[in-house]
Design goal:
It is built from 12 helices and 20 strands. It is of the alpha+beta class and 394 residues long. The strands form 7 sheets. The chain has a 3-stranded antiparallel sheet. Strands 5-4-6 form a 3-stranded antiparallel sheet. A hairpin with a 4-residue loop joins β10 and β11. The longest helix has 13 residues. The radius of gyration is 30 Å and the shape is elongated.
């Protein structure tokens, strides 16, 4: 009484055919682990067992797994008491997520177990066999440079931007059923003015602080010379070099921007302009006012650096306090002790995970991620992150 293959689990496929751990039950019984081993498929007639629930199970381990998973008292009974023509195949759906035992299919897709692989094979009406146990290892070429291509995704009218040709080819090889097709070079066209962009504070060359680079893109229509000066809010020294004292005082009362500053007088100033006005007023009274971070970091220079740490940018800092004084909030602590070229978590290794969001560097090149910029900076320390998103071109 061989269980039919034609429609096994078909009605339950929700499109999630690649590896997924979200269904993995906690502490699966050993019977479940054995039930999903690669040699469980194809089903062997001599190993099938009939359960007291009327279900024909692929083998005894699958029956025991069903008992463990459902909590129902399912036992083995004589084979002639199960009718192969009246099987509710949904009863075996639990095998697709009963336990993890990754296999690499002949389609180069990694599946959570062999039953998930066969679920996809039947849904796609293709034959998929096991290449080997474990995750598929696809040798993808990699490029850290952002040269986007626009692709039609899932065979629909929707579009998706890939960081570069290498990322597109790698993704396509790992997802053979998506039927991706290349449309044109460059990012998929969309309206910058109406599009959502995450808040990523940047300083413009006009001394104003903006929420993200898209604000500068819009302003460049009327001011083509406007550029990004650097990531993060404009500093008091930068603003003082661009505006007169009277202009700063006027802007303090009229301009609202994301450049709040904590002063050494324990007051928070809503903008760099408001801070500069207060600083000038206090100076007239013989008092000093500095940004708190500057005060703290001046003290940090006295650190003896006896507890070095490695930052996520692959640079070694004297200690955690020194790391806290750098202007790039994206750089965090990676581990205790100095960085090493052999670090498995260094930026040059992490960049291989693919592009997350394009990043513009000070050399005018758009990279696929922060990690790609930091990796390049290990060779050329002059390279730094200028701002998130693609560089502004003339």
């Amino acid at each position: 009484m061989l269980l039919a293959r034609s429609s096994l689990f078909l009605a339950f496929l929700a499109g999630a055919f690649a590896t997924s751990r979200s269904y993995n039950i906690v502490g699966p019984a050993k019977s479940c682990q054995r039930a999903v081993k690669p040699d469980a498929w194809p089903i062997k007639k001599e190993l099938q067992v009939c359960g007291t629930d009327g279900v024909i199970y692929p083998n005894l381990d699958a029956l025991e797994c069903a008992k463990n998973y459902s909590g129902h008292a399912v036992e083995k009974q004589e084979s002639d008491k199960c009718d192969a023509q009246k099987q509710d195949e949904s009863k075996l759906f639990f095998l697709t997520y009963a336990a993890d035992h990754e296999v690499c299919g002949s389609d180069n897709v990694t599946y959570i177990n062999v039953w998930k692989m066969q679920e996809v094979a039947q849904y796609r009406k293709v034959e998929i066999t096991v290449q080997h146990e474990g995750e598929c290892k696809i040798d993808c070429s990699f490029s850290p440079i952002y040269k986007p291509v626009c692709v039609s995704s899932y065979g629909l009218d929707s579009e998706q931007t890939f960081s570069n040709e290498e990322e597109f080819k790698c993704f396509s090889s790992q997802n053979p059923y998506l039927n991706l097709s290349r449309k044109y070079d460059g990012a998929c066209v969309f309206n910058y003015e109406n599009s959502f962009a995450p808040v990523n504070i940047i300083c413009g060359t006009n001394g104003f602080t903006y929420k993200n680079v898209n604000e500068i893109r819009k302003l460049r229509k009327s001011n083509p010379k406007l550029r990004v000066m650097h990531d993060g809010a404009c500093t008091p020294d930068e603003v003082k070099g661009l505006f007169s004292a009277d202009q700063i005082r006027e802007l303090a009362g009229s301009r609202s921007e994301s450049s709040a500053i904590c002063g050494s007088d324990n007051s928070t100033y809503h903008s760099v302009f408001a801070f500069l006005v207060a600083q000038a007023d206090k100076k007239a009274k013989g008092q000093d006012l500095m940004p708190v971070n500057c005060v703290q970091c001046n003290e940090m220079t006295k650190s003896n650096g006896t507890s070095p740490i490695c930052g996520t940018d692959g640079v070694t800092y004297p200690d955690e306090k020194a790391l806290g004084c750098i202007e790039n909030y994206l750089i965090l602590k990676e581990h205790d002790g100095p960085c090493s070229p052999s670090d498995e978590t260094g930026p040059c290794k992490r960049q291989l995970n693919g592009g997350f969001a394009e990043v513009c560097a000070t050399n005018g090149i758009t990279y696929t991620s922060n990690e790609a910029v930091w990796c390049a900076a290990l060779t050329d320390p002059k390279i730094k992150i200028l701002h998130q998103l693609e560089c502004i071109s003339d």
